[in-house]
């Protein structure tokens, strides 16, 4: 150990969380943002960098590929049971003459990212800065000495990006009393763990927080709650208080080991690895994600996601008030793998054309799954509200229907069109029909701006028209339900679709706005294994009822020869309904299964004729 400063005096600051409404360029939905995190929700998109000693192994040790199928290459030390001294021989592979963190920052900038977060110390315990606390650092093994954190900090400052630092506080495979999972078999005492904490974690954090200028965030990585770990809440509070004392503006993520709900002073929630948002949250949150699978460089990586897939993840998160932290795993010579660089640059070009729909934007008040053809982001500027329709799949008939907004847009245009040539539209009650240009303007995702003179009221709980020319009435978009109401998620790799098991008389109700007179076909999808002719289904709409008894749907083979037999969901025609005039229509479905029998109900489909 180098000189250890043990006499830190911690000021315990009580930080009162300012639940300031984010007053400018904000989405209406995101209200619980503290003042520290304002830049963060504005930025929306950042770069994660996993780079360290493990990058020299590239997922292979002594000819053997990383053990364990989760294939996180940065875990090779632990997974392949490498000796501590031998592990550092990987540093022989590093070409220090070509390693230049500024290039990563330049890439982040070109990619349209607004912040970078580097693994200053990952689980292997090796510090990427010149640490006075431990010899287990990059300065000790480079001649002349390198300090990657300093080089990155300088580059971030030069190029105007915020710098975040990942610090593995819970797990540390280097310190004899740091946590590794082996200690579940060979336990240590809490006092020993505290020794690691006080002599490595706290002083190293103090170094990072005092020697490198402004730190945008410290990204901790305890992916379980502290109550299930050796780390005590007091230790976590000590760490957080140190951050608040030394860098009051620095953000702290929930993988500190404390949830945002438990401690609102935690600035943002971190979702699981490669987990993207599924619902809107009022406080800041972020998905950490990879371009393929591993975080550290892995020579056998083969799960590359396309640029469009990655971009859709970013859009999805922003539409739910979240951020995306997308990872690069550079090689031991500093190079960023081609597949990563190419995708990042492609998304960066898209952001040059469409960044308005991401930066400073957030979700909109319509339900996430209201439309099956787009995700929606929004922002308010100077009283004007813009909603951005992100359309990956250009409609062949060049027509889009936006459902649920009563106000008439003041203007509609393509975001990528610098001339803002107006797109024609017709607005009727709660449906705006856009007449789009023939050609899809963007090969990845095209963005249409719909502008309103003020924030428009929305009518939720209306079924919007689907891409397949009709209305899909499901448990997700019904306005009322009684009886059996629990949704059963998809099973057997989706071959059993999401449904509701109806075992009592149940009713479901939907509301649809139909724009003109027409004759609609009505179908219902269900699985029923009882006798045909028993039980009853009744769909009532516009004072007409369509009644039929249940039909046995039989079984179905998912894949041959693997005993994959499931109950079949079949579509049954319920008849045709004449819609006499434009207006709101209620559809009410009543299902009455025979005694002691179940009907698995999936959807009702209203087809436009
Ligand atoms: O174990 C780490 C892993 O190596 C990687 O750093 C990710 C990034 O989110 N975090 C942990 C697992 O969740």
Report on this model:
With 609 residues, the chain is of the alpha+beta class. The protein folds into 3 domains: 9-357, Glycosidases (TIM Barrel); 375-452, Sandwich (Immunoglobulin-like); 470-608, Sandwich (Jelly Rolls), CATH 2.60.120.260. The protein is built from 9 helices and 30 strands. The strands form 7 sheets. An 8-stranded parallel β-sheet has the order 7-6-5-4-1-10-9-8. Strands 18, 20, 21, 23, 28 and 30 form a 6-stranded antiparallel β-sheet that branches. A 5-stranded antiparallel β-sheet has the order 19-22-29-24-25, with no helix packed on it. Strand 2 and strand 3 form a beta hairpin. Helix 6 runs parallel beside helix 7 (233-246) and helix 8 packs across helix 9. Ligand FHN binds at residues 72, 74-75, 221, 223, 273, 288, 295.
Write a short abstract of this structure:
With 609 residues, the chain is of the alpha+beta class. 17% of the residues lie in helices and 27% in strands.
In total, how many beta strands?
Answer: 30
The distinct bound ligands, ions and cofactors come out as: ligand FHN
CATH superfamily of the largest domain: Glycosidases
Helix content: 10-25%
CATH-derived architecture of the largest domain: Alpha-Beta Barrel
Structural class of the helix and strand makeup? alpha+beta
Tally of DSSP helical segments: 9
The largest beta-sheet arranges its strands as 7-6-5-4-1-10-9-8
| Multimeric state | single chain
What would you call the shape? globular
How confident overall, as mean pLDDT? 93
Describe the sheet with the most strands. Answer: 8 strands, parallel
Indicate how many domains the architecture comprises: 3
